[in-house]
Design goal:
The complex is a heterodimer. By secondary structure, chain A is mainly α. Chain A is built from 16 helices and one strand. Chain B has a domain of about 40 residues. In chain B, a hairpin with a 2-residue loop joins strand 2 and strand 3. Classes of the chains: A mainly alpha, B alpha+beta.
């Protein structure tokens, strides 16, 4: 096979490179002309061949410039990274060509043909996205049905949270402990009271009106804070020597891990009230929080158990030989090390938790995705599903991507310290 | 009694016993409390606990069913329809997620910079968007943009895609059972052949072309049934019918509803990102020295991959991937959000609304998923034990 084809060699380097470069140029020119000028240069060929022509020409071109150790740094770099074999050449061209073909229309839809100005659907005259929809509904997407006049309460609760978290990075170590205790045990009560109201002259806002992105944050933050200690105790329970505690923990963990979250939420909505005395009413949001917390705690327990198992036995023995009891041993020696080991796993569980929050729509609570669903069925804004979901997807993506990046950094930082 | 010498016996045994007794007591008390409340509540509503309702007539229709079903069938049958729909979408999702995930996972390790980057961005994008949003996107935004029935997208005149769904040819079998048995027979004979081949290799060092023999058996035996077994297969191609001036409908063939398409798409694209990461980790986890050692004893590239790299990579890949399959199956319950009639929508949704039997229905639904999960984790433990490195 190779004898039939012209074998590119180093002796005729410039000839081969210019021939290959010319062919690649033709391939690219064909695609560019096709995309931007609506010109089909290879129109005289049968339709399928014409479609594949730039790919074939480009591949042949890349074959000609595939010369090992050519002495030209740029050429060598291209060959090793994009053009190491015929298959790679084809794949490279497919990726580049599809980028040329699909990125411009996507950008047009997103930005150049999109509509930003206006307040009603009729203002959207261009072919692109109608961001007016997102603009008009933005308030609802963030705050749900929360009354406009009271939204400062949500804002201040979140500003307080960010200020506290920010402060915990800077205050001296001595106060850090108290700040954390405040953040974990007292702040949730203050924040919840501030948002729900009812006392101190604040108007009561029922949880059905909460919604949008702020509800996403509220649900994930609470479940996140609560599921951690429960998961820790479940993990310890599962590794306990006492059979009754061990089997209870195993049963609890496996029960939650074995069922989908949506059935757990269904359970909290329709089955849980049956188990309470007649007439007791537990708020919808509280029920959902309990359900999500227990569900995520089971996953958290398995992650933490992984860390506990990975610790060498000597750590336990050393702690015991110092005369430490069970609790002191675990809280001072074992858990700090075990948790450090499983930071990626914990971060993944938190990520899963954030991504699971939209499911609360099954009980009628509408966070960001649910609000988009509601907005797109509004008779004045029909046909705006794409914009809504793209917006919600972007918001979630930014949150989750930032979290996963942060956890990767944290992991790196902690691993170098060891 | 001499109280001076009395001391509470806190020897190790009792110290261990107290928390255990407390746990069990608490558990029992909670269960009793819940049971009493549930009994009272059900008594107030005039219903009693029991599963008798399963044999009652369901009197609701299900839009998509693999088996014969209508409103005159029982709730138990409706449950079965939902279960089969769940299994169907999970199986489709697992199939495509595996193909896509393995491709992307290998792509991430490609020498080609563009391919590696493209695979990486695929993973980063689809892993970080909630699955439910992806399902909504495909169902409410992407598939709604498809053309109407009249201007369906035409695939070579045998298959049509439009906003109502995807119409594909229907397989019309005669004597399907004979065909089915022939496949089973082929699988059994392949097992025997590979056992024989292993024996030959171990005892005489002979390599049999097991792969080609297996392929031959798998194609040849079913093909034989066409020639002599009286099996035949024809295709019923969907046809466009005009009902009135503006109403068109496809008749014949199989229609795949958009709910199923969007659910399967979202599930497989989402799960593929996790499988891709598993595959990547698995291949990276095989020591380079293993490949070099295999090459130095003269194995060919294909043999290295098949006999040295893959068995070790699979040991790392399979356990987390099984977990992902399980997650996919559980995630298929999100079907309820777009009204794909899976077990949650049919049983925990419609059937519960009609009967009001919250406890029974939710328990059955959860138990179904639970038994699925537990059986897979039992299999996983068995597999891990079998595959664990046996050190001498």
């Amino acid at each position: 096979m190779k004898n039939i084809l012209i074998k590119p060699s180093k002796e005729h380097l410039s000839n081969f490179v210019s021939l290959g470069g010319f062919l690649i140029f033709i391939g690219f020119f064909d695609v560019l002309a096709n995309t931007f000028l609506d010109l089909n240069l290879t129109g005289f060929l049968p339709s399928k061949l014409s479609y594949l022509a730039p790919l074939i020409i480009g591949t042949i071109g890349l074959y000609f410039i595939r010369i090992e150790f050519s002495g030209n740094k740029l050429l060598d770099k291209i060959n090793t990274n994009f053009n190491s074999s015929n298959l790679n050449a084809v794949l490279t061209l497919i990726v580049i060509f599809s980028l040329i073909k699909y990125i411009p229309p996507l950008l047009n839809w997103f930005i150049f043909d999109a509509n930003f100005a206006g307040n009603v659907k009729e203002d959207c005259t261009g072919d692109g996205a109608c961001w007016v929809f997102v603009k008009v509904w933005f308030n609802r997407f963030v705050y749900g049905m929360y009354p406009d006049a009271e939204q400062w309460r949500i804002n201040s609760a979140f500003i307080m949270l960010f200020a506290l978290v920010g402060a915990s990075f800077f205050v001296p170590l001595k106060f850090k402990k108290y700040l954390l205790i405040f953040l974990l045990f007292i702040y949730p009560i203050i924040g919840l009271k501030l948002i729900s109201g009812g006392d101190f002259g604040l108007k009561y806002v029922e949880t059905g009106a909460w919604g949008g992105l702020s509800l996403t944050f509220i649900v994930s933050a609470f479940a996140l804070i609560l599921c951690f200690p429960i998961g820790m105790f479940l993990a310890l329970g599962r590794r306990s020597n006492l059979p009754a505690i061990r089997y209870t923990s195993i049963g609890f963990i496996e029960l939650w891990r074995g069922v989908p979250l949506i059935t757990v939420l269904f359970m909290s909505a329709v089955m849980f009230p049956m188990f309470l005395p007649d007439g007791t009413y537990v708020d919808k949001l509280i029920r959902v929080l309990i359900a999500i917390t227990l569900f995520e705690a089971a996953y958290m327990a398995e992650v933490i158990r992984g860390g506990l198992q990975a610790l060498p036995k000597g750590q336990y023995e050393a702690a015991k030989s110092l005369g430490m009891g069970y609790w002191r041993m675990h809280f001072l020696i074992i858990l700090p090390q075990a948790l450090k080991l499983v930071i990626p796993g914990i971060a993944n569980t938190f990520l899963a938790l954030v991504k699971d929050t939209p499911l609360i729509f099954v009980v009628g609570l509408l966070e960001l995705a649910g609000m988009v669903n509601l907005a797109k069925t509004n008779p004045k804004w029909l046909g705006m599903a794409m914009e809504g979901y793209v917006f919600a997807g972007l918001v979630f993506w930014v949150i989750c991507y930032a979290m996963s990046r942060y956890s990767q950094n944290l992991e790196k930082k902690l691993s170098t310290e060891r | 009694m001499n109280f001076k010498n009395f001391k509470l016996d806190l020897s190790n045994k009792n110290k261990d016993l107290i928390p255990q007794i407390l746990t069990v007591l608490l558990l029992v008390l909670v269960i009793i409390y819940f049971t009493i409340n549930a009994q009272n509540n059900m008594g107030n509503r005039g219903i009693s606990f029991g599963f008798g309702f399963l044999s009652q007539e369901s009197s609701f229709d299900i839009t998509f069913s693999l088996i014969d079903y209508d409103g005159s069938h029982s709730y138990a049958k409706a449950f079965l329809v939902g279960l089969l729909n769940t299994i169907l979408v999970s199986a489709i999702g697992i199939f495509f997620a595996t193909i896509l995930g393995v491709t992307v996972g290998i792509g991430r390790l490609s020498q080609n910079y563009l391919i590696a980057k493209a695979a990486e961005w695929y993973v980063e994008i689809f892993r970080n968007i909630p699955l439910i949003l992806q399902i909504f996107f495909w169902y409410f935004a992407a598939l709604r943009a498809l053309p109407l029935t009249v201007d369906s997208i035409n695939f070579y005149d045998i298959s049509f895609l439009n906003v109502k769904g995807w119409y594909v040819p229907k397989f019309v079998w005669t004597n399907f059972s004979i065909f089915f048995y022939s496949i089973i027979a082929a699988v059994i004979s392949i097992i025997f052949v590979s056992k024989y081949a292993k024996k030959q290799r171990d005892e005489f060092g002979k390599q049999l072309p097991t792969f080609y023999i297996s392929i031959g058996l798998l194609i040849g035996l079913p093909f034989l049934t066409f020639l002599i077994g009286g099996v035949s297969l024809s295709f019923q191609i969907p046809e466009l019918n005009q009902l009135s001036k503006t109403v068109y409908v496809y008749r014949g063939g199989v229609s795949i509803i958009p709910e199923l398409i969007s659910l399967a798409l979202a599930l497989s694209m989402y799960t593929a990102t996790f499988i891709a990461e598993n595959v990547r980790a698995g291949i990276l986890g095989v020591n380079k020295g293993q490949k070099e050692a295999a090459a130095s004893i003269g194995l060919t590239k294909g043999q290295i991959l098949k006999l040295v790299v893959m068995p070790q990579a699979l040991r790392i890949i399979i356990p987390p991937t099984t977990n992902q399959y399980l997650n996919l199956t559980k995630n298929s319950s999100l079907a309820a959000a777009i009204a794909y009639p899976d077990i949650v929508l049919v049983f925990a949704g419609t059937a519960l609304m009609q009967t009001g039997r919250a406890i029974e229905i939710i328990s059955i639904t959860m138990l179904t998923y639970l038994s699925l999960s537990l059986s897979i984790s039992v299999f996983m433990n068995w597999y891990n034990k079998k595959m664990a490195i046996k050190e001498k």
